[in-house]
Amino acid sequence: MARERNGLLAAGNFIMDHVKIIDAYPEPEMLTTIRAQSSSNGGGPYNVLKDLAKLGAPFPLEAAGLIGDDADGEWILSDCQKHHIATWGMARAESAATSYTDAMTVADTGQRTFFHHRGANAIFGQKHIDLSRSQARWFYLGYLLLLDEMDALDGEGSTQASKVLEEAKRVGFHTVVDFVSVPDKRAKAIAKASLPHVDLLFINEIEAGFVTGDALRSAHGPNWQAAESAASALFAMGVRESVVIHFMEGAIAMHADGSSDRHGSARVPGDAIVGSTGAGDAFAAGVIYGRHENWSWPESLELGVCAAAVSLGAGPPSDAMLPAAQCLEKGRAWGYRSMP
Fewer CB in 10 Å around end: N or C, the chain? Predict the structure, then answer.
């Protein structure tokens, strides 16, 4: 008898974030002082897995990615193992360094500037994912638009990402995809290749705009009607079950049967906000937790917005994350923004 599938296999961007607090952003050829520095997890699958571990997800967590044979790669492996994330799917690249981002934050203003080295993530492809080794129920792939090899379009309108997702569906996974907020003229073509093999799509208003061409935010805030239209366009491109479009103010989940669910974000007090890096991934982790455990959509969205809110309590992604019950307690105490 085949073993029942359980857990999440997350594949794609595994990034080291090196955060440096500086006095000021220097003019060309000038010098500034680094006052403090730290390193942390970065990239959709890495952040989601670590957030789920700290939320106390009661199911197995597995990582699949490509890292260099270097100190950053060792840090990622050690960190995953510390949080009980299986690393059998983490391969080593001989010709590339572990992907990293240098994030420069000005001490007085909080203004951030990012310098990203794509490294091993740029050559991460279909050959690096062995779906046959996993008995997870869910398969997450992210970020589309930040995986050069996976995003490359062939002459037939397919990508390696679309082929991986198609195979994941064939062998029985529930598939999840997330995008990154990077302008790319191929965004619609890349989306069209993969979305027919995607059960659940996470996308923010900026990314949805790249793919559909719609403006989902005005000077007055989110345009929820435009979000619904964008979700309909994404279903027309092939999404199978649900599209979740998230804003700073809340999220809307549209479903293939025509129904929808909405939830406002938590009203986090200003003194509880330190940084927003990884908040979107924290939201996705909360929703995945709930849906994997067969929670209703309203319950899952609530955990998503609460996890995102709690994540704001630290600069690095995942550092402030708490068990799910505590996230919900904090979010309910702060209250939620109203939704139209």
Answer: N
